[in-house]
Automatic annotation (TrEMBL):
Annotated keywords: Exonuclease, Hydrolase, Iron, Metal-binding, Nuclease
UniProt xrefs under SUPFAM superfamilies: Metallo-dependent phosphatases (SSF56300)
Domain of life: Bacteria
Entry similarity comment: Belongs to the cyclic nucleotide phosphodiesterase class-III family.
GO molecular function, a single term: exonuclease activity
Database matches in Pfam families: Metallophos (PF00149)
Protein name: DNA repair exonuclease
Entry annotated with the keyword tRNA-binding: no
Residues of the Calcineurin-like phosphoesterase domain: 4-190
Source species of the chain: Halopseudomonas salina
């Protein structure tokens, strides 16, 4: 079984030490193959906040793939925002803003959807869309094909429509047709799983998106507690089984507990990448 832990929006600078300790225990107990850190790693992109995040990551028991969120670009330091927006991020997490992870049963493609020219909105451009589609089309049938970015592509609440990734209308159906199984993101601190469709709607191929809540921050959304996602996947004789487990932090017990599980239907009906409408 492949196990992936998704951590999002920890907002170091507002992290809670007890929650952080509980999350480290969960990670060590579950022993994921890889850990995904889907943006807003810091609250204000300060060097000390990235240092705290880096220290946390070094305690995790698996490789970590990270992408920046809008909070990981300086807000008040206008010179840094204009000329070196990812300086502190790169100091902590390396120069690669769009890492890739691949194993026998898993392919994870990461996208940087943050934009220094925007305050909070994210965007995807044509080159990113086509690069991801091409790589999805090269994946092996037994692999779970994932994309990680910070900004959401589907809204469950009306108020989140303005938070959707700019360019999602083109990107999502392109990626689903190319073979996307699961897109994971954060940004809105609201965990949910939602279906995605290709260019032919319900008659074509489908995929999924899984949003994660804030893992560590005091900046929770309403009554929703700190949470993370655990993604479990197996493929036996061509048959895929995939679950997304939402784990919520329970202050009374001081630990993360499974609160909900979604079982995802995984299709291997893939449209040719170069197909024209």
């Amino acid at each position: 079984m492949t196990c992936v832990l998704q951590i999002s929006d920890p907002h170091f600078g507002t992290e809670q030490p007890r929650v952080m300790s509980a999350l480290l225990r969960l990670a060590r107990e579950q022993q994921p193959e890889v850990i995904l850190l889907s943006g807003d790693i810091t609250q204000r992109a300060r060097r000390a906040q990235f240092a705290a995040a880096q220290d946390f990551v070094t305690q995790l028991p698996a490789p970590v793939l990270a992408v920046p969120g809008n909070h990981d670009i300086p807000l008040f330091n206008l010179f840094a925002r204009a000329f070196n927006p990812y300086g502190n991020y790169r100091r902590a997490f390396g120069n690669e803003l769009e890492p890739v992870y691949e194993s026998a049963g898993l392919l994870v493609l990461c996208l940087n959807t943050s934009r220094p020219s925007r305050h909070k909105d994210g965007a995807v451009n044509k080159a990113q869309i086509e690069r991801v589609a091409a790589r999805l089309g090269q994946a092996r049938p037994e692999q779970l094909r994932m994309v990680m970015q910070h900004h959401p592509v589907r809204a469950r609440e009306q108020s989140d429509l303005t938070n959707l990734l700019i360019g999602h209308e083109e990107a999502v159906p392109r990626w689903v047709d190319a073979g996307l199984d699961l897109l994971v993101g954060g940004h809105i601190h609201l965990p949910y799983v939602w279906p995605l469709h290709g260019r032919h709607g319900d008659s074509g191929r489908s995929g999924w998106t899984a949003q994660a809540g804030t893992a560590l921050s005091t900046r929770v959304r309403g009554s929703i507690p700190n949470s993370v996602n655990l993604i479990r996947h197996t493929c036996e004789q061509g048959q895929h089984s995939c679950q997304v487990e939402r784990w919520d932090y329970k202050a009374e017990e001081d630990l993360f507990i499974v609160s909900h599980t979604d079982t995802l239907a995984i299709s291997r009906k893939v449209e040719p990448v170069n197909k024209k409408e």
